[in-house]
Design brief:
The protein is of the alpha/beta class and about 250 residues long. It has a single domain, classed as Rossmann fold. The protein is built from eight helices and nine strands. The strands form two sheets. It has a six-stranded parallel β-sheet with strand order 1-9-8-5-2-3. Strands 4-7-6 form a three-stranded antiparallel β-sheet. It starts with a strand and ends in a 9-residue tail after the last helix. Bound molecules: fructose -6-phosphate (F6R).
Length: about 250
Amino acid sequence: MNLIVANDYADLSRVAAERIAAAVARKPDAAIVLATGNTPMGAYAELARMQRAGAFDATHIRPFQLDAYLGIPFDDERALYGWLERAFLRPLGIARERVVMLPDGAPDPEAACRAYDAAVDAAGGFDLAVLGLGPNGHLGFNEPPSPADAPTRRVILTEASLNSNGPYWGGRDRVPREAITCGMRHLLAARETLLLVSGAHKREILRATLYGPVTSDVPASLLRLAGKVTVIADAAACGRDDPTWRC
Ligand code: F6R
């Protein structure tokens, strides 16, 4: 696992966008699973800027949704798909038909999860995973504990996730209790992974991810068993001002 320490959030976003653009330049039809959440927003905006300047071309990429709240229609503005559409798909001119989506309230979520995993397999696995780090070490909504072979599935959100997502929903009690997440199995098999981490509030969980035990209790720590993983963290997340920090 490589660690890049960015000076600040703008630097993190630029470095991440350049890495994504490089992966797509190597393989224009790359299968890419994409997080929402706050952290990758700057990178996605930078990619849109690069595309306008002719330095990036999203025409052929194959985007995969990473996670979804169960029971929230995909076109609800609070749905994670809606967020992905506003932040990534629309600015890059990617039509919905090209996206492998997760079910929102499908009548049979389990069958829909199997269909999603089959679509990832049919794509030959992910070429690139763009992930954020949950406050409890979750990746997507692979809440702790999530074993390395966890499939795409329905999950119950933990207290930490309800709290961290509360601000997006106007309060913790309004956050949906269940979600669907792409499983650890496919995420860990990605040929390249970028884990983006920003802010002092991520310091402890970043430290656990990089240097703590490799354990399903911190799902992100399992990335240390995976192939080509690059953590791009800003100085605030690394705690450069903390003399005990080893960045
Ligand atoms: C969202 C997702 C989540 C977030 C994580 C960090 O699609 O996959 O795992 O990446 O909760 O969220 P932020 O970036 O808002 O701190």
